[in-house]
Amino acid sequence: MSLISFAPASGVWLLSTARTSYALRIDDTGAPCHLAWGPRLTLAAAGELVPPPAAEISSFEGRPAAGEELPVDGGARYGAPSLRVRFADGTRAFEWQPVGHRASEPASGTAELALEFRDRHYPLAVTLHYRVHEDTDVVERWTVLRNTGREPLALARADSAAWTLPPRDDYRISHVTGQWSAEGVLHREPVPHGETVLTSRRGITSHHANPWLMLDAGEATEDRGEVWSAALAWSGSWHVTVQRTPDGRTAFTGGAGHDGASLPLGPGEEYVTPRYAAVYTDGGFGAASRAWHAYILAHVLPHPEELRPVLFNSWEATGFEVDEAGQKALAARAAELGVELYVVDDGWYGGRRDDTAGLGDWEPAAKGFPDGLTPLIEEVHRLGMRFGLWVEPEMVNPDSDLYRAHPDWVLHFPHRTRTELRHQLVLNFARDDVAEWAYGWLTRLVADNGIDFLKWDMNRAFSEAGWPGRENGEDVLWTRYTHHLYEVIDRLRADHPGLRIETCSGGGGRVDLAILSRTDQAWPSDNTDAADRVSIQHGFGQIYPARTMAAWVTDVPNQLTGRSVPLRYRFHVAMAGVLAVGGDLARWTAAERAQGAEWVAEYKKVRHIVQHGTLHRLRGPVDDAPCAVQYTTMDRREAFVLVWQRAPRHGTPRPALRLAGLDPTARYRDARTGAVHHASVLTGYGITPELPAGDWSSTSLHLIRVDEEA
């Protein structure tokens, strides 16, 4: 199968994946235009979609607002532009002039197309990039802009790509919203006419939205229907604009940055936009999620083949009261549970005893660790666990030696208040000296202490985002900050190949394809209440796989919500991702520790299914009835089902759960009871899980295929 093909007669380019096609062409004005994105087409069939010569453009309408691969600000265009440029003489309009193309296969099973353009008069080169792989239906796109002249220009908007959907009677958008400790709330709602903007202006991906969306014609369900979905690989501010036009089209464009900020591009400089990936499926929202999970495992994560270890984190047990003796005692308890990675959270460094001081002074606290971290780390390793440490390299407390030495290192404007959030300010990672400082102490910390894991946190959004003394600093920093963040992490991992990193930003404030390409897992929320986590994890899993979703079992009443749910329920919710424990084990009873050890051992038996299997959402968290998820190994030999129910109503029938993804001709044995079930019954008629009586009940089901014929 040719992944990229071209028909010179019609000028059609066809990108082919295993089950889908993406087609485009350059029209007679030189503009790159969309033709198709959906079910498989041949090159000849795609040629039928070339529109007839355009009639005279209406003076009231202009060019259609949807249908171009990268709509520009220029000509009779009135829709949302993907590219807005201001040239040195003040001209803002852009006119396409095709220059050439390059089609290549840089790796086996991968193909790339680059369409090259320039402005018809001004010195700006624009190249549209496309990449497809044999093993996924995801199409990757990005844009490269280069100033070929001798004067600076400014990019007021430079999106990665625009995506056009086929005409349908109606469209619905799926996306997530939220806030700190309430991330990932899934919404499915009609696309209104006009423009809908999803964005973060905070300098991070944000808790309040995430740069992905799904669109369907209002008919898709979890198991069937056409879904078009896209996700932006960018960890700073971003924007996505969805358009529903009067002529019945729906399209969207997205990229880095936000309204009001522009990107200067000096002579000879080049800007490469973030990757914008997208996928089409006719198998409903569940198939879209599974396509994303498989893509992230195959093409995003740095070590997808690994099984993530069971982790213990000290934060909820000790807060800022961190010292060697206390951590050694906790580590011993954690090892008894079967924990494999012990992580010391905030409070281990400098003068840190609360959140008002010490941030930025990254040396072990002399009082808590008089001999440094080495004795604790040696004890953790002796107990058979790896050692991890919490860090927040991008932040500083004004009450710190670092800030007293370098007050100019933070984001700020002259004559403006330096707003403190959580008693801290944001270090300007766009500065070379700040990024080099961060890399220096991080690589020394890891090397000197044999650290296996870092929890990289970032606990506040940008404010007073200025860079005094740097020309156009207030515009340059938004992009350069994020690029320097990536460079520091990349250098750190290159120095220490065994190091693993968790991305955290006050919970789920920085989760996206770009940060996941250089970290190993994500912290979805600071809210560890198992009841709330069911819906948070439901939203997270729409795009991101369980392999990346850290989930803790913590104490009750929950520190944030005050809610109490059984230990069994807390473990079952956390087993839906990368299981971790974050409670104060010194307060657990002997019975609780024994139960915890049993659930940790059970999780280890099934984590290969959860972390590397396919996800089926059997029933979402929509009402008081059971909520259930199923994971199945790729060879369909094993399946693992988790079921949770908040508060059953008396007299309400318990629905049978119809399983999915099993070998239809096989039988499966329940690993706990030994009962054997025909797959045809499990998938066609369902099974009613046995849940304990009462509120907050939960259960799990591990099925193993019986080898002999049914």
Automatic annotation (TrEMBL):
Keywords of this entry: Glycosidase, Hydrolase
MF terms in GO: alpha-galactosidase activity
Family matches, as InterPro entries: Aldolase_TIM, Alpga-gal_N_sf, Alpha-glycosidase_related, GH, Glyco_hydro_27/36_CS, Glyco_hydro_36, Glyco_hydro_36_C, Glyco_hydro_36_N
Reactions performed catalytically: Hydrolysis of terminal, non-reducing alpha-D-galactose residues in alpha-D-galactosides, including galactose oligosaccharides, galactomannans and galactolipids
Top enzyme class: hydrolase
Gene Ontology terms: biological process: carbohydrate catabolic process
Active site: 457, 526
Sequence positions that bind substrate: 180, 345-346, 422, 455-459, 504, 526
EC number: 3.2.1.22
Ranges where the Glycosyl hydrolase family 36 N-terminal domain occurs: 30-265
Highest rank taxon of the organism: Bacteria
Cell inner membrane as UniProt keyword: no
Glycosyl hydrolase family 36 C-terminal domain ranges (all copies): 627-703
PANTHER family for the chain: ALPHA-GALACTOSIDASE C-RELATED, GLYCOSIDASE FAMILY 31
Family statement: Belongs to the glycosyl hydrolase.
Name under which the protein is recorded: Alpha-galactosidase
